[in-house]
Write a structure and sequence with these properties.
By secondary structure, the protein is of the alpha/beta class. It folds into four domains: 131 residues, Response regulator (Rossmann fold, 3-Layer(aba) Sandwich); 157 residues, P-loop containing nucleotide triphosphate hydrolases (Rossmann fold), CATH 3.40.50; 82 residues, Helicase, Ruva Protein, domain 3; 53 residues. A hairpin with a 6-residue loop joins strand 9 and strand 10.
Length: 465
């Protein structure tokens, strides 16, 4: 077992040495004569506990406590004071000190205080480990700072409470639709049941039905002689996530609709009616409404799948999330590759914010993975990413030189952003003669995203002149 580590900060050599000698048999101890020396060491290593003298030369113990708590809010600090000055002790406790001891120090009393503090640390660590394990296994957490994603997560908390209401997630490739599906599952009453994921685009059309609904023995050539349970049965009392649901054949769509409406189905080649309770969460990056117009997707299924619809904005629509996500991936891959990355340079951040993310969050993740793999650290540099600032793909009107200066009285950024989007959506519709698909191409976004933005801004399609 690795012993707990303790910093002792006191300007009196006899006290430092006395405490060190008493504790070093049970703990890893480092002693410092000043707050400045301890703060410097704290940047390289964070101990479990700090014994901090209040009456230090130079920076006082109270000021040092304030600095320590800014950098490491959860660390436990026991203050050492030469006399029990109530005002000073209260100040220390308000700043977050765990406890205090009065000189002359009685080691028996100090060791009891230390053991109590370390027991608190142990409990905190155990709770944190349990929380992290539970979050990792059961409660996915979407890394986001933007209001758009926070609103989606709040909405998911609300709609996930139903165990069987179908939910349709719409959005571009790489926006995290599968992650949101797992979030829905683990925040629903079905979380104890299985989460079964099927990529409809990855299964051959002639096998989708048998995969979803299963088959009886001898149903077709090459079938398992014992028959097979379908994925819907596998997801009983849980959640079935149909990714790329727009790739389902019309025949499979009809069977899925029957199951959604009646909760029952037949296995391929079977005559026995099967009944299963499960929630269907589906997702697609395709324009299902356009597919309905082309008779490639059933309208009744669309409305049944989309009792609840969630439109996931692209990464370009939520720039506030780019840096938090990049840091999340930086630390993830730093641990994976056993690197020592602590942050990214300002140049990297500027470049990431100025990049047009065609592949959304997935593209950002891949880019950071590459950077961490080839980089040396401790900061992620632009050359690690393999892209140059000049290769940013944003239109010139969105780069720094194309923006108007902020007036002295300031601006309403939300209003400016809405005006910007409104202008270009209306202009694109005018140029495309009211054709949304063409207008979306002019703006370099897919039809889904265009329609979502147009409706959000309450812009009516107009015919061009």
């Amino acid at each position: 077992m690795i012993p707990y580590s303790i910093y002792i900060v006191d300007d009196e050599p006899t006290i430092r040495e006395g405490i060190s000698i008493s504790l070093k048999a049970d703990y890893k101890v480092q002693a410092f004569p000043s707050a400045e020396a301890a703060l410097k060491a704290l940047k390289a290593h964070i101990p479990d506990l700090i014994l901090l003298d209040i009456g230090l030369p130079g920076m006082s113990g109270i000021d040092a406590l304030s600095e320590i708590k800014k950098d490491v809010p959860d660390i436990l600090v026991i203050m050492i004071t030469a006399y029990e000055d109530i005002k000073t002790v209260i100040s220390a406790m308000k700043l977050g000190a765990y406890d205090y001891v009065v000189k002359p120090i009685h080691m028996d009393s100090l060791e009891i205080t230390i053991k109590n503090a370390l027991e608190t640390i142990k409990l905190r660590k155990e709770v944190r480990l349990l929380q992290e394990r539970y979050l990792q296994e059961n409660l996915p957490c979407y890394v986001a700072e933007s209001n758009a994603i926070k609103n989606i997560m709040d909405f998911i908390e609300l709609v996930a409470k139903s165990p069987d209401t179908p939910i349709l997630i719409l959005g571009e490739t790489g926006t995290g639709k599968e992650f949101l599906a797992s979030t829905i599952h683990y925040r629903s009453p079905n979380y104890k049941g299985p989460l079964v994921t099927v990529n409809c685009a990855a299964i051959p059309q002639n096998l989708i039905e048998s995969e979803l609904f299963g088959y009886e023995k001898g149903a077709f050539s090459g079938a398992n002689p014992l028959g097979k349970r379908g994925l819907i049965e596998e997801a009983a009392q849980g959640t079935l996530f149909l990714d790329e649901v727009g790739d389902l054949s019309l025949e499979a769509q009809a069977k899925l609709l029957r199951f959604l409406e009646e909760g029952e189905f037949y296995r391929v080649g079977g005559t026995k009616k099967m009944q299963v309770s499960t929630r269907i969460v589906s997702a697609t990056n395709k324009d299902l409404e356009a597919m309905m117009d082309q008779d490639r997707f059933r309208k009744d299924l669309y409305f049944r799948l989309g009792v609840i619809k969630i439109q996931v904005p692209s990464l370009n629509e939520r720039p506030d999330d780019i840096i938090p996500l990049a840091r999340h991936f930086l630390f993830e891959f730093s641990r994976k590759f056993k690197k020592n990355f602590t942050d990214m340079t300002a140049e990297v951040q500027s470049t990431l914010l100025g990049y047009a993310w065609e592949g959304n969050v997935r593209e950002l993740r891949n880019l950071i993975e590459r950077g961490v793999l080839v980089g040396k650290g401790p900061e992620l540099a632009l050359e690690d990413l393999g892209i140059e600032p000049s290769k940013t793909r944003l239109p010139s009107s969105r780069r720094e030189g194309g923006f108007s200066p902020i007036p002295p009285e300031g601006i309403d950024l939300t209003t400016v952003e809405e005006a910007f989007q409104r202008h270009y959506i209306e202009e694109a519709l005018r140029m495309a003669g009211g054709n949304e698909s063409q207008a979306a191409k002019l703006l370099g976004i897919n039809h889904h995203t265009f329609r979502y933005r147009r409706k959000n801004l309450q812009i009516q399609p107009k015919q061009g002149g």
